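Structure ticket #2291
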Amino acid sequence: MKILSLIFFTMINITQSLSAQNNHKVCKECVTVLKEALQNGETIFIKVHAAEAMIFNDYYTGISTAFNKLIKEQSNLIVASRVLARVYQNDKAKYQSYINALLYQLNNADSTRGKLIALESLAKLGFQESLPEIKLYADTGTNGFKAMACWVLSNSNSAADEDRLAKLLASKEPTEYRGAAYALRFKKKIKPETLQLLTACAKRVEKAHAAKVYVLSSWYVHAATAKTAQESKKKLLTYMNGAVNERYEVAESFSMRGSVKDIPVINKLMSDENMDVRVAAAKALWSISQRKK
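Resolution: structure written out below.
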């Protein structure tokens, strides 16, 4: 009996050791992909996504050096401020300086797109102050501004502010329900009433619509039952051969909810021809390996 017990526990230790070695190998592969994108990404957003994927997995090496260089260029100021705010989130003074930079760009950027990216960046950083300009965008904004402003306000975690964002899921304006669904994917938890609106939106929007993948992604991340999760994931996987942004969104959803069962799919995305998709896949694979489930 003692011999059998010894053999049993030895096998467990070997299995755990092999699992640890495998996780280390996976993490190393993901770091390689992300560092390559951080250094040689074809666009600033690929570099940003790589940095944010690393931070998502609590890995910061090389990010501040890269983005302290990039922020010196006016064209990179907004997104570089977003990344550096994450890097220095525990340094109150530095963090606030980057938030202030984004607030300035929200009001003074040369382009409408720049202002929108600044607003989205504030939302992603958890900014929640109901400034007059943000409230105005939440009430009357168009072309994506309303959804991003409602996202900022929803960071208060109050039921009323979440309801304001969730209400956009029933809008007839694509930028509103797409933006709301996208915002909700980043939430750790949403109200049952919000999930009902998200489910209805997922079933209402046509497959061919450009917003559909974002709605499905959010629905999958927040699915309340195994059956619904399976249903939403099945629909989401139909985008595996879609456009770059669609493949990217599939990978992003797995970083939030994926499990070891999804690794074969994620490995396909790790071999994608597009670097941004590979970045999202590396983020997902790394987070799953750390969750160990």
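Closing remark: Residues 2-40 form the longest helix (39 residues).
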